[in-house]
Amino acid sequence: MSKSFNILIAGFGGQGVLFSGKVTAYAGLLEEKEVSWFPSYGPEMRGGTSNCSICISDDPIGSPQVNTPDVLIAMNLPSFTKFINAAVPDSVVVVDSTTVSATSDREDIKAFYVPASQIAIDKELPGLANIILLGKMLKETNFAKKESVIEAIKKSVPAKRVDMLEKNVKALEIGLEL
């Protein structure tokens, strides 16, 4: 049976939405899956709304745009509000409960409320709530092997930010433990 994931990661620009989407897509590529990565953001890159559609599948992908995700990461309240009802039944929804005070009353989804921004601060990993949430998503969906995601982080962290490599891996591990 073929498996596919239609993933939507959404938040404000500057929260690492596009980076975590890139890591997710790269992990799929490393596992030789069909992959699409479709970023969308407003003209104000930092601070404006930002989301990223990622499709990972055993089969060819018809459209890169994810309108009805089966996996959703919401990093802010506007994104949660906009996309929570678009998630299909049995979706995995991972929410940064530090920045999103709302919860869903939907009983047909698996929602996980993770205080990722606060954990990132507490663990001295500022700015890495996105990767903590990615780790939680990985734990709940198994969209890729952990080793593939770590390799994807290594390939996605730019050379000028090599100091962030170990911190990103640590953030992923924290998310996997939640």
Task: Describe the secondary structure blueprint for this structure.
Elements: E1 4-12, H1 17-30, E2 34-41, E3 49-57, E4 71-74, H2 77-83, E5 92-96, E6 110-114, H3 116-122, H4 129-141, H5 146-156, H6 165-177
Helix pairs in contact: 1-5, 3-4, 4-6
Characterization of the model:
A hairpin with a 7-residue loop joins strand 2 and strand 3. The two termini are 29 Å apart. Helix 3 (116-122) crosses helix 4 and helix 4 (129-141) packs across helix 6 (165-177). The model has no long low-confidence stretch (mean pLDDT 93). The chain is α/β, with parallel strands linked by helices and 178 residues long. It has helices at 17-30, 77-83, 116-122, 129-141, 146-156, 165-177; strands spanning 4-12, 34-41, 49-57, 71-74, 92-96, 110-114. It has a 6-stranded mixed sheet with strand order 2-3-1-4-5-6, with helices on both faces. The chain is globular and about 40 Å long. The protein contains 6 helices and 6 strands. It has a single domain (4-177), classed as Pyruvate-ferredoxin Oxidoreductase, domain 3 (3-Layer(aba) Sandwich).
Q: Let me know the largest β-sheet.
A: 6 strands, mixed
- Uncertain residue ranges: none
In the CATH hierarchy, what is the class?
Alpha Beta
Looking at this structure, what is the CATH superfamily?
Pyruvate-ferredoxin oxidoreductase, PFOR, domain III
Q: What is the beta-strand fraction?
A: 15-25%
Euclidean distance between termini CA atoms = 29 Å
Number of strands: 6
Q: Structural class of the secondary structure composition?
A: alpha/beta
Major β-sheet strand ordering: 2-3-1-4-5-6
The dominant shape is globular
What is the chain-wise order of helices and strands?
Answer: EHEEEHEEHHHH
Mean pLDDT: 93
Task: Estimate the helix proportion, in percent.
Answer: 25-40%
Please identify, by name, the CATH architecture: 3-Layer(aba) Sandwich
